[in-house]
Amino acid sequence: MAFAAHSWRCIVASLALLLTGCPVLSFNPSITSLRLLGSASIPTGTLFEGVEFGGISGLDWDAGNSYWAISDDRGERGTPRFYKLSIDYDASGNVDVKIDRQIHMLREDGTAFPSSARTVDPEAIRVARNGQLYWASEGNWNAAAASRFQPFVREMTTQGGFVRDFSIPSSYHYVDNATRGARSNKVFESLAVGQNGVVYVANEDALIQDGPPASLQAGSVLRVTALDPVTGKAMAQYAYELPKIPVDGTPGAAFSPDNGLSDMLAVGLLFGREFIAVERAFAFGVGNTIRLVCTEITDATTDVSGLASLAGATYTPMTRRLLLEMPAQYQGLKLDNIEAISWGKILPNGNRTLILASDNNFSDTQTTQFIVFEVFEDS
Asked: What is the pLDDT of residues 133-149, one digit of tens each?
């Protein structure tokens, strides 16, 4: 008896779910193309339980139509928090997003982070294999050491309770914002969970000792660190090469253009190390250029954890294959500040879906945008 290709997808995906306990599924690591299904937006200023909704910088699928989302509000509009969302859509492009719950991330002592001071900068969230949540903070640079908060990756319960910290290499720490260490607001934006449970975290733009940030003339190099889900310690580190900024801003622009790695999503075989990377570039007066890139850690990729600096060093970086490049206006859709990527449900034809989400920066000129794609893979 012959089975349709989508039947095999569903069968293998179901087996993978049983083995991994995680909805990041695939029997085939080669994604060939994406098709825009539809989008939905939540306007800036929308209140939920009396607190402004926005700043969505991380998104991850839980099950069915249920998703976890994290806000990068650093204690300026409310207590640092994350959300449970319902996102429903169909193959015809109808997308519906609802806010179901709002939860505070809690500190080690069980208290919430302050709502009137910058301490954490939440930027990414992922579902752990044990059903709990991982989240990453970019920290906050301050010239005064007492007011400086270092980046971190933590595990928490779905109620926000602190579980543990991962051990992050000190190369990611803020030092002086000039000669070495992390650049202000350029640290952890990306968080991914491989299907073997390994947690991957990456900085947005180059650490100071690794070279200059991306520019219109040249790209930059980032570090992707693999963290052991059992011990919490760093296992290895890999270089990801970020290309130069693709578009310049308009003459007299108020801000310089930039480019950065804003999220990563694990794909591939059960124990694969392939990801979709989200590269987000912004040019004032032009808008956002979003690139989705297939990137992989292969046996040939160099473990760079022993290199104090990547500037001028010899290494083999992660592979890079452009999957989709979207200019500021893409198929009639004005792209916002895309910072998050998640798997979504499987369509009736057996194809998987991807969801992108934007950080509205709590700006009246932006919205919280959710964009859904159908995923096509070779068989």
From this structure: 999 999 999 999 999 99
DSSP annotation of 141: -
- 311: tokens are 């500037």
How many Å apart are CA 202 and CA 206, to the nearest integer?
10
Contact 154, 70 (CB under 8 A): no
Answer yes or no: are the C-beta atoms of 63 and 23 closer than 8 Å: yes
- What the block records as the tokens of 354 is 């991807």
**Which residue, among 138, 337, 356, 326, has the nearest Cα to 255 in the 3D structure?**
337
Beta bridge partners of 155: 134, 164
What are the DSSP E strand ranges found in 268-366?
A: 274-283, 287-296, 321-326, 329-330, 333-334, 338-343, 353-358
Q: What is the pLDDT of residues 192-209, one digit of tens each?
A: 999 789 999 999 999 999
Helix (H) or strand (E) holding 124: strand 122-127
The C-alpha atoms of residue 27 and residue 16 are separated, in whole angstroms, by: 8
Give burial (CB, 10 Å; 0-12/13-18/19+) of 234: middle
Give the span between the Cα atoms of 99 and 3, in whole angstroms: 39
Beta strand pairing status for 367-377 and 258-267?
Answer: unpaired
| Rounded CA separation 176/117 (Å) | 21
Helix (H, G, I), strand (E, B) or coil at 133: strand
Tokens in use for 89? 């859509």
* Rg (alpha carbons) of the chain, rounded to whole number: 20
pTM for the full model? 0.92
Count the Cβ atoms, other than its own, within 10 Å of residue 57: 25
Burial code (b: 16+ CB inside 10 Å, e: under 16) for 24-41 equals bbbbbeebeebebbbbbb
Token pair recorded at residue 207:
């650490």
Angle at alpha carbon of residue 273, lines to 135 and 128, rounded to 5°: 30
Q: How far is CA 93 from CA 34, 42, 70, 187, 373, in A?
A: 14, 17, 25, 34, 9
Please answer whether residues 222 and 242 qualify as being in contact, where contact means their C-beta atoms are separated by less than 8 angstroms.
yes
